[in-house]
Amino acid sequence: MKTPRPNPLAPVGIGFTKRLLHTRRVLSALRHWSPSEDTWDAQHDPLVSVILITYNHGRYVAKALDSILSQTGHFKIEINVIDDDSTDDTQKIVEDYAQRFPGVVNCYFNTVNVGHQATQLNTYRGFQTLRGRYFALLEGDDYWTFPGKLATQVRFLDENPGFVACSHKTLKFFDDGSRPPEHFLPLEGFRKNVATLQDLISLNAVYHISSTLYRNVFRENPPLCLADPSSCEVTIQMVYGCFGSFYCFDQYWSAYRVHEHGVFSSRSRENIWLFHLRGFRRFALYLGPGNWAGFLLAIRGFTRHVLASAKSKEEPLLQRKTYLTFLAHFVVATLLTPVVGLLEWLAMSFSPAGRARVANKLRVIGRRAYDRMAVSASPALRLRYLDWERRHPRAARLRALIKSSSTVKESAYIMNETDQSKSFQIETTANNSQLQARERLVHLFEESPIPLQEKLFNIGMYTRSSVLVKYLVLNDIYQRIKNLPGHLMEFGTWWGQNLVLLENLRAIHEPFNKQRVIVGFDTFDGYTALSDKDKPSDVWAENSYNTGVNYVSHLRDLLATHEASNALGHITGRHQLIPGDVSETAKRYFIDNPSTLVAMAYFDMALYQPTKDALLAIRPHLVSGSVLLFDELTWPESPGEAIAFKEVFARDEVTIEKCSLYPSKAIVTIR
Ligand SMILES: C[S@@+](CC[C@H](N)C(=O)[O-])C[C@H]1O[C@@H](n2cnc3c(N)ncnc32)[C@H](O)[C@@H]1O
Fold first, then answer.
1. Do residue 496 and residue 402 come from a single domain?
2. Which of 493, 501, 633, 641 to mutate to test the pocket of ligand 1 (most atoms within 8 A of CB)?
3. Which of the residues 54, 215, 540, 564 has the least number of beta carbons within 10 Å of its own beta carbon?
4. Which residue has the CA at smallest separation from atom 12 of ligand 1?
5. Domain shared by 456 and 475, yes or no
């Protein structure tokens, strides 16, 4: 590794205007930044830099350092300890670590204390030292609780260039033992699994400082807004949110220690609320006019929440001056939101991209209005309208445009603008007249006079027998494994219908079993390459079945929504989606989760190599009586699956039967 970055100084005495100008310059220079412009030097630089912020953390810092040093993963890290002139033995302890871990633990010690509002100047000093492709932050009194944390986050960011950071849950615990540990932040509503910039601004997503791994977007030139006295993890996340989305894992992998000397934990609720209000104002300016409508909405929501909770019995009353400050912000934000929103739209429509966004937004609004009308209009009125439309093709064209717009645009985005229909056709043994009937069914589905919600409720009306049979097969398998412990897995999920079915079968057959985890593996980029044990296929090729990596967040959302609407819907997070080539992800999954038991696995990739690698990985975890469902075991056109199966399992280890409802599928039971 190269030597650490030269010791930078904390940016003391820099005023707001200078910070604002610098920030606007940096952000606008990086306007078109993407991970492909990453200038990380793989040969010399660590992959991950950790900034450890300390001040009088002598009692805790060894635990923080140990939790970083015990991280697993085959990559180099650096730990840059930024100490704000501690008066206890913090520096001595850190120096001892630096001697024992030369080149890994680096000391950046202030000779005078610069900490003011909290630790922003110190943190900024840390931002200036980063060499890694990714970086994480930790305060000297907190620590990480899972040795695989960094490795999992690194893998996620490696595989998902659309995301700029990823987080996880944090447990807040009370150093004096006065209260049992609890989830960091009182509301789960603060923690969206996938968060856009607007979510971060409107506090739909707030992740504890110890939880997030970021891409090192700014390298040696971090914007000076990060040294603002009202900066904290919330605003740091907003700044990085300008460069991509955030993902949040559902596990608790870090601990936030509440103690009487903690910078934040020792402050009053009122003080923290005022701090955030100032943060909103300042960061609205730092991030620029394009985000003002979002900030106004956020200020409106935040002030309303504070005013309401100050009235509730649990929260302390606000001082009169503070109350008026919040009230004034609420009124001004409410008045300005529509005006600024409109101005933003107008400004946007000056550029072609902006015009397209406005047009799309209008179409989405049109589509929503259309759906709403379709739901509320009587069937007789709808039929009369359709009849009229037949005589007025222009009206029909307009309706078709409105109807198709939002969904077409969204799915094009989801699919990374790849045209799915060109890249593959769904495998079928149907003849021409059957295919024509299918097309007619699609047409009837599209043109159905049934309102959208009722159509969804009656979806069986458009379900073909060859699709229905898949539900029945899975139901049969579910009943077989119902009394076994273990996860349910699918290798090759595509859009994820089986995962959703499994969630709903779980809710039907064992509504109170919240131990049942459902795991889906897929590249989400479509098929990987064939090996010499596979046969080229007419129905799929490399990259066919590509859903686009952005689809993963939609599927996560969908699964969580089904879960929330089922029994015990408040206990969530029983699904895992593992994007990537199964040849790597399956092995890694079981290394990271060695205690996993598996009750059922569905294999539907047809290829030799990933099927074999998944079988090898899963084999030690299969419980006796567990079931493997194979889609192509008996298909001579896709021999890879059967070859892999025969190479992994001996005849006396399993029983094999033909699936009675769906003859080409095979059911394997582990003895
Ligand atoms: C036929 S589709 C699965 C259909 C799905 N089981 C269903 O019933 O709806 C096959 C899937 O395997 C995935 N796949 C192929 N090779 C893979 C690999 N090496 N790793 C992960 N997924 C792979 C493809 O992306 C595709 O989504």
1. no
2. 493
3. 564
4. 492
5. no
* Reported confidence tier of residue 509, pLDDT bands at 50, 70, 90: very high
CA distances from 143 to 66, 113, 165 (A): 8, 23, 19
CA of 157 to the centre of ligand 1 (A): 22
**Measured from the CA of 495, which atom of ligand 1 is nearest?**
9
How far is residue 428's CA from residue 128's CA, in Å, rounded to a whole number?
A: 58
- pLDDT one-digit tens code per residue, 533-559: 998 876 667 778 888 667 888 899 899
pLDDT score for 422: 36
Q: Is the pLDDT of residue 419 over 60?
A: no
The last residue of a domain, from among 437, 462, 487? 462
Helices and strands: H and E segment counts in the chain? 22, 17
pLDDT digits (tens, 9 = 90+) for 220-254: 899 999 999 889 889 999 999 999 999 988 888 99
What is the atom index within ligand 1 of the atom nearest the CA of 497? 9
Mean pLDDT of 396-424: 44
Q: Which residue blocks in 524-638 are alpha helix, DSSP H?
A: 551-565, 582-592, 608-618
184 and 270, same domain (yes or no): yes
Q: Which of 428, 466, 522 to mutate to test the pocket of ligand 1 (most atoms within 8 A of CB)?
A: 522
- Protein residue with its CA nearest to atom 13 in ligand 1: 492
601 and 649 belong to one structural domain: yes
Mean pLDDT of 487-516: 95
What are phi and psi for residue 174, nearest 5 degrees? -100, 120
